Automatic annotation (TrEMBL):
TM region(s), chain numbering: 28-50, 70-91
Top-level division of the source organism's lineage: Bacteria
Xref: Gene3D superfamilies: E3 ubiquitin-protein ligase SopA
Record keywords, A-Z: Membrane, Transmembrane, Transmembrane helix
Protein name: Pentapeptide repeat-containing protein
Length: 428
């Protein structure tokens, strides 16, 4: 059963004074007049008592002057009574106007609230409809429709900031969907059928999704485009396949790239991550650029595989940074990097990092513990002018090429590790 909406009950005009806490005008005037008369009589007898009541004597007829004075007194009494009535009436009118104004303000505020709620509900319904249509388009079998769905989501998030995180979550979820990069187009493959063409179209959709992330998670220097930046966004690209991923100068809070596959180069130069960032198990097939990137909290690269060169020059790690079991097949640059927290390049849990090429830490600053236990350096390991606030650990670290049996040589150091200068030279 639906409850009927209650409507306010209004008092009739003759009883409206009760709603304002006032007496009726008749009662107010009667009380005011009676009080005035009593006050006048009391004042008269009080004055006579102070001046001394004259003895009873034969009254004398009033002369013209006395009559005029008596007439002035009567007029003054009448004027006083009139002023009293006017004062009572003005007071009541003021009270009525104030009450009416307060009630009008309450009615207007209520009407505005109802209008805002109605507009908000209508907007939410419209946003929900648009969101549902865009998500449905992302599941369409035609690439052009999927592209339209991405652009619809982007426009929706741009116009409605409260839904930006949701839209980013949808875009990231799309990129986490399984996908195989198509082989380069050839005349034979084009003649083989439409399957390869469908994969290439899907590639364009995924590249567009990556550009959406780039466009709105990058803080541009151009003031005219600053409105395109979406602040305080989290991204989850766990296990995603990313192609030539560009996140230069990107800004994100918590970011997860665990087990992601980066096909081609991956650019994170100057990126800022205000929360925890995870690249554990990520695979980089090309160059991985993290130069001048800023990790405000923990950064995990445990088990990451860098098939190409990896650049971390000038990167800032404010929290824990973990590179246990990371595989660097190419050169690894950490020159002038700053490690404010503990830096883990080797340990008992995951094993040490493996540097297949040169490992350069020249000028790096380690404010916390620096652990390279079990790390393997196949190329030159340069720590020139590196600064260690605590004595670093190179226990069981090995430098040199593996022998024919793929067994690493015994722990070996070219010279002792010092706090201001350290160098491991490749053994011939």
């Amino acid at each position: 059963m639906v409850d009927q909406e209650e409507t306010p009950e209004y008092l009739p005009v003759k009883d409206a004074h009760k709603a304002l806490g006032l007496w009726s005008i008749r009662r107010a005037l009667t009380l005011a007049f009676s009080s005035a008369v009593l006050l006048l009589v009391a004042s008269w007898f009080g004055l006579l008592w102070l001046l001394g009541s004259p003895s009873h004597a034969k009254p004398k007829p009033l002369d013209t002057t006395a009559q005029l004075e008596l007439l002035k007194l009567v007029f003054a009494l009448v004027a006083g009574i009139g002023a009293l009535v006017a004062l009572v009436t003005a007071y009541r009118r003021q009270r009525v106007d104030e009450a009416a104004g307060e009630r009008a303000e309450r009615v207007q505020a209520h009407a505005e609230k109802v209008a805002r709620d109605a507009a908000h509900d209508a907007t939410e319904r419209r946003v929900t409809d648009l969101y549902g249509q865009a998500v449905e388009q992302l599941g369409h079998d035609k690439a052009a429709v999927r592209l339209g769905g991405l652009y619809s989501l982007e426009r929706l998030a741009q116009d409605h900031p409260d839904h930006r995180q949701t839209v980013i979550d949808v875009v990231c979820a799309y990129l986490r969907m399984p996908f195989t990069i198509p082989a380069p187009s050839t005349a034979e493959q084009q003649a083989a059928g439409p399957g390869a063409d469908v994969a290439r179209q899907e590639l364009q959709v995924r590249l567009t999704a990556q550009r959406v992330l780039k466009r709105h998670l990058t803080r541009p220097s151009d003031q005219d485009r600053r409105a395109a930046h979406w602040p305080d966004i989290q991204i989850d690209l766990t296990g995603a396949l990313l192609i030539d991923f560009d996140f230069i100068e990107g800004h994100a809070t918590q970011a997860t790239f665990a087990n992601a596959q980066f096909s081609g180069d991956a650019w994170f130069g100057g990126a800022q991550f205000s929360g925890d960032t995870w690249f554990s198990g990520a695979q980089f097939s090309g160059y991985a650029g993290f130069g001048d990137a800023k990790f405000s909290r923990d950064a995990g690269f445990e088990g990451a595989q860098f098939s190409g060169d990896a650049g971390f020059g000038g990167a800032e790690f404010s929290g824990y940074s973990g590179f246990d079991s990371a595989q660097f097949s190419g050169d690894a640059w950490f020159g002038d990097a700053q490690f404010s927290g503990d830096a883990q390049f080797g340990g008992t849990h995951f094993g040490g990092a493996h540097f297949g090429g040169d490992a350069r830490f020249g000028g790096a600053k380690f404010s916390g513990d620096a652990r390279f236990g079990g790390a393997k350096f196949s190329g030159d390991a340069m720590f020139s002018n590196a600064h260690f606030e605590h004595e670093p650990s190179f226990v069981d670290a090995a430098a040199g090429y593996p022998n024919d049996d793929q067994q690493w040589p015994a722990p070996w150091y070219a010279q002792p590790i010092s706090a201001d200068r350290a160098k491991l030279v490749r053994r011939g």
